[in-house]
Amino acid sequence: MFRNSSLHPAVKNILLILILLIVFMVVAIPFKVMSIIPGFTDIRPVMLFQPVYGIFFGIPGCIAFAIGNLIGDIISDSLRWSSIAGFAANFAGPFLFYIFWSKISKTPFLLRTGKSFLKQTAVTVISAVTQAVLITPAVVLIYPDVSGQVFAVTVLLNCSVFPIMLGIPLMILMHEELGFKPSKRLKKSDKLR
To answer: Residues of the chain with pLDDT > 70: what percent?
Structure first.
């Protein structure tokens, strides 16, 4: 997005995070009224951005996703102690996509083949389970009156259905038609001083 800009790398990352936050909030806020467990979880189409932010925007995307979720909690009066676990989980979700496609996968990111689609689906399921494992115990321990099963299933569905059904088509469009390239892991020589 800012690859050919003369801006300092830190400024580029801050601007990128702000732009990604705005996109996150535009999609997240309208759906906050569709609660499953009021104050704790809702139907979250914004989860479609989880792989997008991780794969195409790397660490800034992961940060924007986590901060966007936290701001959404604040705006919707859902800020709880368990939001700390939510922040960690909403960073970890896109981070798993980033790590898989930039470091683990031996093949480049390309969703044209059945094999790459299956890889993306597997990472999505692993990410969804990771998020449910990070958030659900915090919610249940702090708020024992919340149904852990309903909460966990809602997290699993939100974190898998939207990234697969809407996220994959968006990534294909971004990659194939708009020319977005997957984010690369920073080398030691590229890190900010």
So the answer is: 92
Read off the pLDDT band of 41 (50, 70, 90): confident
Q: Is the pLDDT of residue 189 over 70?
A: no
Reduced 3-state DSSP string for the chain: CCCCCCCCHHHHHHHHHHHHHHHHHHHHHHHHHCEEECCCEECCHHHHHHHHHHHHHHHHHHHHHHHHHHHHHHHCCCCCCCHHHHHHHHHHHHHHHHHHHHHHCCCCCCCCCHHHHHHHHHHHHHHHHHHHHHHHHHHHHHCCCCCHHHHHHHHHHHHHHHHHHHHHHHHHHHHHHCCCCCCCCCCHHHCCC
pLDDT tens sequence across 131-164: 999 999 999 999 999 899 999 999 999 999 999 9
Burial (CB < 10 A; 0-12, 13-18, 19+), residue 163, is buried
The pTM of this model reads 0.88
Q: Hey, what domains does the chain have and what are their CATH numbers? A: 9-183 (1.10.1760.20)
